[in-house]
Amino acid sequence: MAYQVKAADREWADGIYKKLNSKLKAECARMGDWIPYIPKDGRYHDLETPEKIFWWTNGFWPGMLWQMYNASKDEVFRGTAEAVIKRFDRALEMYEGLHHDLGFMWLHTAVADYRLTGNKDSRRRGLHAANLLAGRYNPAGRFIRAWNGDRTGWIIIDCMMNIPLLYWASRETDDPRFKMIAQNHAHTTNDILVRADGSCNHIAILSPETGECLELPGGQGYASGSSWTRGQAWGLYGFVLSYLHTLDKKYLDTSKKIAHYFIANSAKNEWLPLVDFRAPAEPVKYDSTSAMIGACGLLELADQTGEFEAPLYYDAAIKLLRTCEKNFADWNTETDGIMGKGTGSYHGGPADTEVPIIYGDYFFTEAILRILGKNFLIW
Predict the structure, then answer these.
(1) What is the residue-wise DSSP string for 48-94?
(2) Residue 175 a catalytic site member
(3) For site-directed labelling of 288, which of 54, 158, 207, 220 has its Cα 20 to 30 A away?
(4) Buried b vs exposed e over 217-251: b needs ≥16 C-beta within 10 Å?
């Protein structure tokens, strides 16, 4: 850890860690091998249909458990995470429902298992997923395509968080092809989705034959040209991770640029995270997941920069975490979900608007463990 954690922040984070431990153990006891997403009436439910095994968020619950197992060595967390990994084999077997989010799904399950326990079966799972992700690469356009169906030329800012699976596979197999694909995709994302002011587009539609940018849809934000806050967080964290894995300074500079935009807009709203930084003033819509992801990215950025820059990123991360915990967290062990006010998309319905969402809890947990020096690099 390159930055200095303030004593008051460490004390606060230690208290949160104790609450996390109690809450997550209670959830483990209730769920067994269930894979949660958004609680309904205060309780998690398992996947609604067999096809939901492909859902992009399914890795975050076991990822949270592996982080807690690494911090505590409590076998409750390991056993629950391992049960989910076995269920995930069905997704690899069925295959056709998988898309670009293979990193979110297998870094937090199989690769985390392999890193912490040496499980060779999980190493094979992770390499299988990495090969599937590499297979989505378009060499003409130098990008990894998003989603399936008729979206052959689509790229999204989120995928910056999936390509660490390829960096891992490249090191694990001593094969540079995986890293080359990841870097080519990162370069294309930087050139097309990151704007000059540090804001990001969510989606670009490229020609699958040439890579020419044809359209910039609004995606999960307010509209085309707006600034979907979670997309900014994906870019902030994703580019500093690519710097970590490659030491290409261009990625670090891009992460800083996005971070400065993210910090300025977060401070403007007193560190309460909006769904879109450029949405109309009314109605006010919050998305705590963007703050949790952004906080993790800022802490990593603090770790990758020098003593003069690191405090800016560290202080912003702490403000986001403390503000959201104070205003949105639920520590009742009888209810499921921790970080409230998460929103899937600006124009989404009530089911995923200002509710606890599993990846908000994951990134909150990662951030708290980072502050305490108890995390491991799941990316």
Answers:
(1) SSGGGGG-TTTTHHHHHHHHHHHHH--HHHHHHHHHHHHHHHHHHHH
(2) no
(3) 54
(4) ebbbbbeeebbbbbbbbbbbbbbbbbbbbbeeeeb
**Catalytic site residue 158?**
yes
Q: Given the residues 9, 113, 158, 361, select the one marked as catalytic.
A: 158
From the list 9, 33, 46, 101, the catalytic residue is: 101
Q: Could you report the per-residue pLDDT of 116-152, keeping only the tens digit for each? A: 999 999 999 999 999 999 999 999 999 999 999 999 9
- Nearest of 217, 236, 237, 220 to residue 228 by alpha carbon: 220
Separation of alpha carbons 265 and 271, rounded Å: 8
Site of tokens 């975050």: 60
Give the separation between CA 340 and CA 351, rounded to whole angstroms: 13
Query: What is the tens place of the pLDDT at every residue in 303-324?
Result: 999 889 999 999 999 999 999 9
pTM here is 0.98
Give 63-72 pLDDT, tens digit per residue: 999 999 999 9
Phi-psi region of 211 (alpha: psi -120 to 50; beta: other; left: phi over 0): left
Residue 329 CB: number of other CB atoms within 10 A? 20
Of the pLDDT bands very low, low, confident and very high (cuts 50, 70, 90), residue 350 is very high
- Dihedral (C-alpha) 171, 176, 181, 185: value to the nearest 10 degrees? 70
